[in-house]
Specification:
heterodimer; A: about 300 residues; flat; B: about 270 residues; MetI-like fold; 14 helices
Chain lengths: ~300, ~270
């Protein structure tokens, strides 16, 4: 198990380096210089001396390969560079925002699991029932909704009309501010979870060992608890993990809509003002988050289902 | 029964949306950009303006019809690009194997690690907003699953009798890939592309909403929602109708994709029989 774990953890490193390279290349083919685009407002041209000074300050006058090696070397020491705009270390800006993003993603995931898994389970136990049909229509609708639009509608209903909840902002971390963004962000994983749980449970129900369990006279409840739930769990854990990993990426739009101070809104704001080091840093952190969660899922997966380790 | 419903309803929704886009110039009572009139700003839906008017007095209904042109073009064209990239890489990797296979596999794994919306955001940041940038950003960032499917289908098709026969007849590799292998894996590829179109319409909406996609005054469904947050209390129809258009067309693509998968998946076919 330990060897399997270590191997999976070390597999992350090359992927991160290639992602870093890819991001680096994308932002190096930008036409024109960063320093110029940072200070020209479309009406007046920026002072050439200022541009020259900034270009030198950020090392943008060095050749591309040299900049890349500096970048990777800095990355290895967890130095993501300095923001063009605020002059703060990027890692510090991300650190300040990470908590809010984690809070939002976790709340959204809990919401999705608490509602999605039981719904999918109940739908699968009674295939073709009204509950099943409604759940599946709800799931395909949930996957087709533009999330930010749903957020807007919920804002309109719960914040502006009913006045139950604040419409946006962090509110110093108050739970009431968390509800609307978390529900909005949770809808997609909820729909996906209901769907995969149902598919997983149905698949297990049709397998030979369930028929055997029934044949030897096991009660329905015991079959579901002992065999179905445990076997469907692998699929559910995988879906939860994959969704949780990509949730911070999906949160970008929701964070912006609800003015939530996470790394998603940091990314969007930095894109708008072309603060490239911050953009590169946040994307890298989002990718790293995704890879780490995926690795944890793989390890959990092996712990739940001993058949997987054999490979 | 359900198989039929997904395919029929999904196909119907998709057809309605595509026809709305094609016939927008004849169906729309007003011009989507030129017919701005501040005297008519933020009127609620009535007999003249079916879906109300926006902050500049433009007819929301007409803008949604024209918006279908942009949103659907982005959805369809970007997925065609993704399918071409994914199929080409996956098929050649599966057929030739070796270092090329390793390279494509590595690249696919990297692409899978970057959420496609985030990747598209980065590309938009570099290229700047606009229709062409959107097509590039969404067309280059969502081919990894198609590539995986194309690769695994090729691996299993490569040992089929008719492929071996073609090889012994001396057909070139490319001819075998395009005439023997590709037609036999079109089903799953088509399903991925259809589902991807829904995803691309959602991504376009999200990017335009963030101000990085289609720029005002040109109407795409996403750009129509850009200032919806500020207006939602006074003029909720400005937010409701474009979102509804996005929802229905994405639902159409998703149901169509699900229906196609149910119909084309050999696994499902045997179960039904």
């Amino acid at each position: 198990m330990l060897r399997f774990a270590l191997r999976r953890i070390f597999q992350i490193i090359p992927t991160v380096i290639v992602v870093a390279l890819l991001i680096f290349i994308i932002f190096s083919v930008v036409p024109g210089s960063f320093a110029a685009s940072l200070f020209s407002d479309g009406r007046t041209n920026a002072d050439p001396q200022l541009i020259a000074r900034l270009t030198a300050e950020f090392g943008l006058d060095k050749p591309l390969y040299e900049r890349f090696f500096t970048y990777i070397w800095d990355l290895a020491r967890f130095d993501l560079g300095t923001s063009f705009r605020t002059r703060l270390p990027v890692i510090q800006m991300i650190n300040e925002r990470m908590g809010a993003s984690l809070e939002l993603a976790t709340a959204a995931m809990v919401f999705a699991i608490v509602i999605g898994v039981p719904l999918g389970f109940m739908a699968a136990l009674r295939p073709g029932s009204i509950l099943d049909t409604v759940t599946m229509i709800g799931a395909v609708s949930g996957l087709s909704l533009p999330q930010f639009w749903l957020g807007l509608l919920m804002m309109l209903l719960f914040a502006l009309h009913l006045n139950w909840l604040p419409s946006f902002g962090y509110g110093g971390g108050s739970f009431r501010n968390l509800i609307l963004p978390a529900m909005t962000l949770g809808v997609t994983p909820l729909a996906l979870l209901a769907r995969t749980t149902r598919a997983g449970v149905l698949d297990v129900m049709n397998s030979d060992f369930i028929r055997t369990a029934h044949a030897k006279g096991m009660s329905e409840g015991a079959v579901v608890r002992r065999h179905v739930a445990r076997n469907a769990l692998v699929l559910i854990v995988t879906t939860v993990g994959l969704q949780f990993g990509s949730l911070i990426g999906q949160a970008v739009v929701i964070e912006k809509l609800f003015a939530w101070p996470g790394i998603g809104s940091l990314l969007v704001d930095s894109v708008a003002i072309r603060d490239i080091p911050v953009v590169q840093g946040t994307i890298l952190v989002i990718v790293l988050w995704f890879l780490v969660i995926n690795t944890i899922v793989d390890l959990l997966y092996a712990a739940i289902d001993p058949r997987i380790k054999q490979e | 029964m359900r198989l039929g419903f997904n395919l029929a309803f999904g196909g119907f929704l998709t057809a309605v949306v595509i026809l709305a886009g094609i016939f927008a110039p004849w169906l729309a009572p007003f011009h989507p950009v030129m017919d701005a009139n501040l005297m008519n700003a933020e009127l609620p839906p009535d007999a003249e303006f079916w879906f109300g008017t926006d902050s500049q007095g433009r007819d929301v209904y007409s803008r949604i019809l024209y918006g279908a042109q942009i949103s659907l073009s982005v959805g369809i064209v970007s997925q065609v690009i993704n399918s071409i990239i994914g199929v080409t890489l996956g098929m050649t990797a599966g057929y030739w194997g070796g270092w090329w296979d390793d390279l494509v596999n590595g690249l696919t794994n990297v692409m899978l690690a970057i959420p496609s919306l985030i990747f598209a955001l980065a590309v938009m940041a570099v290229l700047g907003p606009g229709l062409l940038s959107l097509l590039i950003a969404l067309g280059l960032t969502n081919w990894s699953w198609t590539c995986r499917i194309a690769r695994s289908s090729t691996l299993s098709l490569k040992s089929q009798g008719y492929v071996l026969a073609a090889q012994s007849l001396g057909y070139s590799d490319l001819r075998i890939m395009f005439t023997q292998i590709l037609p036999n894996m079109m089903g799953p590829i088509l399903v991925m592309a259809t589902l991807g179109m829904g995803g691309a319409v959602l991504s376009e909406a999200a990017l335009s909403f963030l101000g990085l996609g289609i720029q005002p005054p040109f109407p795409s469904w996403g750009s129509m929602l850009t200032d919806a947050r500020e207006m939602i209390q006074l003029a909720p129809w400005v937010a409701i109708f474009p979102g509804l258009a996005i929802f229905l067309s994405v639902l159409g693509f998703n149901l169509l994709g699900d229906g196609l998968r149910d119909r084309l998946d050999p696994h499902m076919r045997t179960r039904k029989a």
